[in-house]
């Protein structure tokens, strides 16, 4: 008989049997597998959340904010007329005229029909007038001595035209010359081509004086009247 068996019998106890190894290993493997499954499940859930968040961010980034484009309608460019600033030729003639006073209905000096220019009386004093006794004006924009009031402007400010050799009457002929205008030969006093004003209807009228700050009556010596 085995000595161990004897000792066991003598002590009155049964020998201890070792625990089955296979059962312990299986339990441990099961726990690891379960933990792994839980971990995978959690990771998958987190992945879904991240994907959803990423999709939302991508969608938000891809959407352009609505922008109301400003109106491209150009503002109106119709501005109120300001006289000489808008029209260097001055405004169109008006119905209001200055009536010549008694004694101013005929130019002084040689007023014969043959004279193209003469001296007339007005509220401004002696002024140059044409054969009809209408006041003659200079245009400040004619700075080079050449007429620039043409086309529509000439409808309001007709040039003082002469036909052939001008007749200066009893005035100083050295004051006058002739310059070419699109409508013909225009009389010139000093450096200034001469014009009448459509709103002057009678001898002595000076309605064109100071219009647009660019029109001035002319004195008999060819100087400009600024009063």
How does this model look, in words?
With 227 residues, the chain is α+β, with helices and mostly antiparallel strands. Helices cover 25% and strands 14% of the residues. It contains three helices and eight strands. The chain has helices at 3-11, 21-62, 152-156, and strands spanning 117-120, 127-130, 137-139, 161-162, 176-181, 184-189, 192-195, 215-217. Strands 3, 4, 5, 6, 7 and 8 form a six-stranded antiparallel β-sheet that branches. The chain has a two-stranded antiparallel ribbon with strand order 1-2. Strand 1 (117-120) and strand 2 (127-130) form a beta hairpin. The termini are far apart. Mean pLDDT is 73; it is low at 1-13, 51-55, 57-67, 74-85 and 95-111.
Unreliable stretches, pLDDT < 50, 5 or more residues?
1-13, 51-55, 57-67, 74-85, 95-111
The description of the largest β-sheet is: 6 strands, antiparallel
Radius of gyration: 56 Å
What is the terminal-to-terminal distance? Answer: 160 Å
Percent helix:
10-25%
State the order of secondary-structure elements, H for helix, E for strand.
HHEEEHEEEEE
Mean pLDDT: 73
Structural class: alpha+beta
Strand content: 5-15%
What sort of overall outline do the alpha carbons produce when their principal axes are compared? rod-shaped
Strand runs, count: 8
Count of discrete alpha- or pi-helical segments spanning 4 or more residues:
3
């Amino acid at each position: 008989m085995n000595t161990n068996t004897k000792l066991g019998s003598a002590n009155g106890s049964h020998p201890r049997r070792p625990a089955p190894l296979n059962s312990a290993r299986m339990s441990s493997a099961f726990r690891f597998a379960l933990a792994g499954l839980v971990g995978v499940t959690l990771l998958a859930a987190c992945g879904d959340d991240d994907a959803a968040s990423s999709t939302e961010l991508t969608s938000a980034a891809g959407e352009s904010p609505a922008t109301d484009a400003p109106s491209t309608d150009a503002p109106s460019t119709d501005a109120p007329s300001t006289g000489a600033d808008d029209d260097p030729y001055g405004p169109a003639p008006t119905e209001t005229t200055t009536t010549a006073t008694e004694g101013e209905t005929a130019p002084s000096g040689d007023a014969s029909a043959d004279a193209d220019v003469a001296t007339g009386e007005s509220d401004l004093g002696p002024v140059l007038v044409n054969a009809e006794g209408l006041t003659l004006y200079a245009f400040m924009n004619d700075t080079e001595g050449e007429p620039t009031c043409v086309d529509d402007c000439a409808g309001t400010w007709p040039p003082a035209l002469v036909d052939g050799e001008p007749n200066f009457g009893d005035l100083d002929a050295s004051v006058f010359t002739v310059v070419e205008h699109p409508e013909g030969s225009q009389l010139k006093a000093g450096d200034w081509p001469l014009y009448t004003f459509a709103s002057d209807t009678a001898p002595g009228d000076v309605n064109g004086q100071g219009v647009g700050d660019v029109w001035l009556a002319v004195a008999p010596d060819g100087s400009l009247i600024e009063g």
